[in-house]
């Protein structure tokens, strides 16, 4: 390629450079961590979309860490929210693919985002899509075709999730809450919750610090776990910090 054909994206052409498609990222074996087992690896490199790799634990795997791959930050946030539920038994990423025909009668393949299994036996397929797409009738016709092509034995129903409901702050909070519950400390949580219930002056997280003979860092981590459990309520669309307004769940 000659110098005249090279487009300088730094000096004048401010649009994103169109780069050649890269190969998918494949993780090798990680000691003590179960591998990703989806039917499709969505972890290809992209300059326009956000892929998320995470480890998570469920009762189905005896709480052994397992690799999951989400195709977007919103999809990862939905996964983190599901993982906070004490009723969740298992979570699978890219669990199954189905073939369907689109409006042009072309044969297409769709891989479901997630499959959540709960302790009562319910199985829910999770479909995550951005708000703009969900406002289009064409998208809902596609969803209906996907639902029709999905075997009834695969799940009890399919849940449609609007990615627009997950603000950046909510996504970050859900990530941190999921991280917090990885280090359980029920004794501290009981003390912090009892103190929160016993003091009417409690308004902000930082109001608990002088009431407890515990390090502030320990109290804040406990508050994060209590929010994750639903024992404390907070606005997840605001960054959770020591100045956050929280209250005991009724």
Describe the structure.
The structure is a single chain. The chain is of the alpha+beta class and 250 residues long. The chain is 27% helix and 20% strand. It has six helices and ten strands. The strands form four sheets. A four-stranded mixed sheet has the order 3-6-7-8. Strand 4 and strand 5 form a beta hairpin. Helix 4 packs across helix 6 and helix 5 packs across helix 6. It is elongated. The model has no long low-confidence stretch (mean pLDDT 90).
Layout: helices, strands, pairs:
Elements: E1 52-56, E2 66-70, H1 73-83, E3 88-93, E4 97-101, E5 107-111, E6 114-118, E7 123-129, H2 131-134, H3 137-149, E8 157-162, H4 168-180, H5 186-198, H6 216-229, E9 232-234, E10 246-248
Parallel strand pairs: 7-8
Antiparallel strand pairs: 1-2, 3-6, 4-5, 6-7, 9-10
Helix pairs in contact: 1-4, 4-6, 5-6
Number of strands: 10
Helix-residue proportion = 25-40%
Mean pLDDT, nearest integer? 90
Query: Strands across the major sheet, in which order?
Result: 3-6-7-8
Q: Output the number of helix runs.
A: 6
Helix- and strand-based class? alpha+beta
Can you write the helix and strand succession as a string? Answer: EEHEEEEEHHEHHHEE
Low-confidence stretches: none
Distance between the termini: 68 Å
The amount of beta strand, in percent, is 15-25%
Largest sheet: 4 strands, mixed
Overall geometry: elongated
Radius of gyration: 22 Å
